[in-house]
């Protein structure tokens, strides 16, 4: 069987360099390009890449995906910074390139995907919920893509359950003291040397609390998800948002 021809964009970055090693080590994949900032995107087409693993920056990801989709190259995207407007633009590009698949995964680690699923399940049962994400201080975006997605899923679950807005008697606060508001869910971002990627979902009800915590301790935690996404995206045209769609969670 022929090997899947895979390229990595952002190949010199923290997660990109780990992804290069993971693709090289996968028996069913061939690394055909490992590109960094300033390298020509045409290399992707010249080398016959079938899947691009996109791990760059929010400022670069749209131009990279525009190129990939126009050339019918599937993409597995870990880069953050997704807004409704960006997703709509990507959807339009994909409509013009039937057969091309893009997976955007706010988090590739199984523990983080499960955290989101558990939080979504728990959200309907508790009066209060807040999200705390904790990352290394080199991270350029806040809140993390994972925390934003977690909060959106929680908010949707609460709305579906008919939950009232959370209790919060705060009338005076320093700017930022109550975190960012993501669909009504407070999200707090910590940046601390020594950390990699961590998240807590705190839920509170009458006389009890539940804390769901996940810790990514090494970039290797993201690799099985990247490889799974790479294998699955070639047979999944259109836009898939979230690795959970490629996992049998139920
Ligand atoms: N989804 C996940 O599970 C997951 C996990 C870790 C990181 N991330 C995300 O991945 C992204 C990268 O994270 P990082 O910690 O590796 O950052 P990083 O700064 O270490 O790496 C980004 C790399 O991309 C390069 N780059 C920038 N523009 C480029 C372009 N146009 N073409 C090619 N390369 C380009 C940079 O030079 C840099 O080497 C961030 O958005 C981060 O949030 C996602
Ligand atoms: O290190 C990062 O940067 C990470 N980014 C993703 C996010 O913003 O959720 C995933 C976790 C690591």
Automatic annotation (TrEMBL):
Main location: cytoplasm
Binding-site positions, (S)-2,3,4,5-tetrahydrodipicolinate: 136, 145-146
EC annotation from Swiss-Prot or TrEMBL: 1.17.1.8
Location of the active site: 135, 139
SUPFAM superfamilies assigned to the protein according to its UniProt record, in alphabetical order: Glyceraldehyde-3-phosphate dehydrogenase-like, C-terminal domain, NAD(P)-binding Rossmann-fold domains
Domain Dihydrodipicolinate reductase C-terminal: 111-247
GO function term, MF aspect, one: 4-hydroxy-tetrahydrodipicolinate reductase
Cross-referenced InterPro entries: DapB_C (IPR022663), DapB_N (IPR000846), DapB_N_CS (IPR022664), DHDPR_bac (IPR023940), NAD(P)-bd_dom_sf (IPR036291)
Protein task: Catalyzes the conversion of 4-hydroxy-tetrahydrodipicolinate (HTPA) to tetrahydrodipicolinate.
Family per record: Belongs to the DapB family.
Cross-referenced NCBIfam families: dapB
Protein name: 4-hydroxy-tetrahydrodipicolinate reductase
Gene encoding the protein: dapB
């Amino acid at each position: 069987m022929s090997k899947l021809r895979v390229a990595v964009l952002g190949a010199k970055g923290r997660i990109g360099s780990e992804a290069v090693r993971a693709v090289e080590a996968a028996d069913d994949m061939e690394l055909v390009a490992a590109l960094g900032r300033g390298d020509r995107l045409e290399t992707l087409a010249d080398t016959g890449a079938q899947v691009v693993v996109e791990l760059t920056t929010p400022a670069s990801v749209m131009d990279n995906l525009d190129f990939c989709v126009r050339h019918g190259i599937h993409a597995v995207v870990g880069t953050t910074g997704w807004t409704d407007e960006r997703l709509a633009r990507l959807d339009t590009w994909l409509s013009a390139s039937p057969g091309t698949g893009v997976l955007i995964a706010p988090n590739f680690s199984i523990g983080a995907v499960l955290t989101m699923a558990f939080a979504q399940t728990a959200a309907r049962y508790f009066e209060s919920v807040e999200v705390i994400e904790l990352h290394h201080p080199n991270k350029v975006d806040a809140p993390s893509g994972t925390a934003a997605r977690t909060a959106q899923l929680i908010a949707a679950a609460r709305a579906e359950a008919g939950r009232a807005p959370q209790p919060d008697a705060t009338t005076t606060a320093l700017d930022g003291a109550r975190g960012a508001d993501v669909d009504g869910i407070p999200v707090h971002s910590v940046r601390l040397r020594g950390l990699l990627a961590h998240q807590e979902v705190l839920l509170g009800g009458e006389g009890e609390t539940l804390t769901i915590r996940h810790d990514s301790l090494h970039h290797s935690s993201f690799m099985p998800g990247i490889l799974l996404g790479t294998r699955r995206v070639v047979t999944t045209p259109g836009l898939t948002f979230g690795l959970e769609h490629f996992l049998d969670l139920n």
